[in-house]
Amino acid sequence: MDRSTYGFRFAWLGLLAGLLGVGLSAGTAWAQPADESPDDSSGKQGFIFLDGQYLPAPYEVELTEDTLMINGREFQADAFDLSEYKGWEPDRDSRFGRRRPRWARESRETPGDSQVLRVNYSEGSRRFRETPETSSADRLRRFFQDVQTVRFGMILVLDSGEKPLLLYPGQGGMDLIRALRASDGTAAANQISSQLAGGNATWDRLLTEFQPTAEFNARADAKLERFDRAGVDAERVTAATQWISKISYPLTVFAMAVVVLGFGHLLSNRPKIESSGGDPTDWSNHRKVVGQSLLIVALLSVVDLIWTLGTADSGVMRELNPLGSGMIAEPVRLFLFKATVTGVSIAILYRLHRRPIAQVASWWCCLLLTLLTARWVMFQSMFL
């Protein structure tokens, strides 16, 4: 055989083996957050409604000695009903979890002691003392801490002289924003108010009298889209986690058995570069060895594909294969791609089983998939 022709075929089959490895291998790593552009400060913040009007974001909240400022607007402690912001402080004698002596407890439990309004002296419990009077500055300071939670997505409704109302996004907050965005009026008020505890008059007034602005609609649309997308992603991750937990044990046992067979096959059949001539016996043996290598490659490819789809959807690992990572969000497309590459590569290598270079390529592909699956088995065994 001409040396240049032999070298060309060697390079061509080497490229084919490399393509097979890229198509089959699901290079993964522990999940890392995707590179996303950071949201602006107003994008992460929640919503503040003041006297039935939307207060535009971003929100700047400051506290002085007796004044709370929200976006430059000043509010005194008597601007809202802050009666629920009572001051509770731990009983200092209960530190380190030690129970006070009986004489000390009896000396404190006097009928005329106005400083001790509620004390629990049960062993092992945490004791609190309620101060008889809470200053307006203390109530304003605690209210300021609640207002600051808007930075993390909370929804705050303020009406002059009324109690402040706070909503978590996932516990009625997004339903409120959705109703305000849709401007459903009374129908929305009846639906939302039944889900919210307390302050029904405030909810009804906000839902029926609120007039959405263009700025509110833009923020609400972006927030609702992000919230809905997060819900869909959470459902997908939950379903994938449940599915992978069901098949993890049998799939790991099957993969372990195939890995053992793969290593045994690789150690028993070393590839040969030399041509065997026209001996039919050697041709039959080569076909058998190449067929076994490609069968192991096919089995391990199926295991790898199942693990890749399951762990990627559940967020446990991240696809490092640049070709596969672009299609990981489309399981059908990824399946067709890997099945096509694997099937075509296996067919070509089996068709050329008489060529020594085909035997070498199939052996190396089998080694690559066996090592990759051995790594999968090691990681999966740690979390069974």
Count the strands? 11
Strand content: 5-15%
Helix content: 55-70%
Q: Identify low-pLDDT runs.
A: 1-8, 19-40, 88-130
- Provide the structure class: alpha+beta
- What is the 3D form? rod-shaped
Beginning-to-end CA distance, first to last residue: 54 Å
Question: What are the secondary-structure elements, in order, as H or E?
Answer: HEHEEEEEEHEHEEHHHHHEHHH
Number of helices: 12
Q: How large is the radius of gyration?
A: 34 Å
How would you portray this structure in words?
By secondary structure, the protein is an alpha+beta fold. It has a domain at about 5-35 and about 235-380. Helix content is about 55%, strand content about 10%. The chain is built from twelve helices and eleven strands. It has helices at about 5-25, 40-45, 100-110, 135-150, 170-180, 185-195, 200-210, 215-270, 280-315, 320-325, 330-350, 355-380; strands spanning about 30, 45-50, 55, 60-65, 70, 75, 90, 130, 155-160, 165, 315-320. The strands form four sheets. It has a four-stranded mixed sheet with strand order 3-2-9-10. A three-stranded antiparallel sheet has the order 4-5-6, with helices on one face. Strands 1-11 form a two-stranded antiparallel ribbon. A hairpin with a 2-residue loop joins strand 5 and strand 6 (about 75). Helix 6 (about 185-195) packs antiparallel against helix 7, helix 8 runs antiparallel to helix 9 and helix 9 packs antiparallel against helix 11. The chain is rod-shaped and about 100 Å long. The two termini are about 55 Å apart. Keywords: Membrane, Signal, Transmembrane, Transmembrane helix. This is DUF5658 domain-containing protein.
